[in-house]
């Protein structure tokens, strides 16, 4: 089967260390749970929304820690991560969390990176912080993988 999403497939097998998820959801949380369970990693999922937090904690699993924070400044993410996935609801703030992770996460996977959405997400403010970048454009909402530590050839189609 061909890899259809960066880091969520063949690229993920090379990730070392725990996985961070900023903003939970029906698709990403389930995929990250499965990948972390299969690879023996811990998934740390941070959420500000009470309804999403309740959904994410409905079926607890031992390899996932779901953390409720009132605002993203409270998220204790300043440590090494094998991979971080940024897709939280406060879109205008996402670039701030990406900046916080620039030299901490081996790979940062960022959702909704279409250039026409830059007014909302402000990613143009963070691209220069990274040595490597790969834009996955196959679907309507682009996803971008960035890293300061590893080249991204393995994610390219």
- CATH architectural designation: 3-Layer(aba) Sandwich
- Helical content band: 10-25%
Categorize the overall geometry: globular
Mean pLDDT: 89
Q: Count the helices. How many? A: 4
How is the CATH topology named? Rossmann fold
Provide the structure class: alpha/beta
Sketch the topology as an H/E string, one letter per element.
Answer: EHEHEEHEHEE
State the major sheet.
7 strands, mixed
Beta-strand portion reads: 15-25%
Major beta sheet, strand line-up: 3-2-1-4-5-7-6
CATH class: Alpha Beta
Question: What would you note in describing this structure?
Answer:
The structure is a single chain. Helices cover 21% and strands 24% of the residues. The chain is of the alpha/beta class and 157 residues long. The protein has one domain: Vaccinia Virus protein VP39 (Rossmann fold, 3-Layer(aba) Sandwich), CATH 3.40.50.150. It is globular and about 35 Å long. The N terminus is likely disordered. Strands 3-2-1-4-5-7-6 form a 7-stranded mixed beta sheet, with helices on both faces.
Secondary-structure map with pairings?
Elements: E1 19-22, H1 26-39, E2 43-47, H2 50-56, E3 64-68, E4 81-86, H3 94-101, E5 105-111, H4 118-121, E6 132-136, E7 143-147
Parallel strand pairs: 1-2, 1-4, 2-3, 4-5
Antiparallel strand pairs: 5-7, 6-7
Provide a brief overview of the structure.
With about 160 residues, this protein is an alpha/beta fold. About 20% of the residues lie in helices and about 25% in strands. The chain has a seven-stranded mixed β-sheet, sandwiched between helices.
């Amino acid at each position: 089967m061909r890899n259809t999403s960066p880091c969520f497939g063949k690229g993920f097998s090379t990730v070392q260390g725990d996985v961070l998820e900023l903003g939970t959801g029906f698709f990403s949380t389930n995929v990250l749970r499965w990948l972390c369970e299969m690879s023996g990693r811990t998934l740390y999922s941070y959420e500000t929304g009470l309804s999403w937090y309740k959904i994410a904690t409905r079926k607890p699993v031992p390899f996932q820690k779901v953390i409720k924070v009132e605002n993203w400044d409270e998220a204790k993410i300043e440590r090494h991560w094998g991979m971080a996935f940024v897709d939280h609801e406060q879109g205008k703030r996402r670039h701030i969390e990406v900046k916080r992770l620039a030299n901490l996460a081996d790979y940062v996977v960022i959702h909704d990176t279409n250039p026409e959405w830059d007014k909302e997400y402000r990613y143009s403010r963070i691209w220069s912080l990274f040595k490597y970048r790969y834009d996955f454009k196959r679907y309507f909402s682009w996803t971008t993988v960035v890293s300061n530590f590893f080249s991204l050839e393995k994610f390219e189609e």
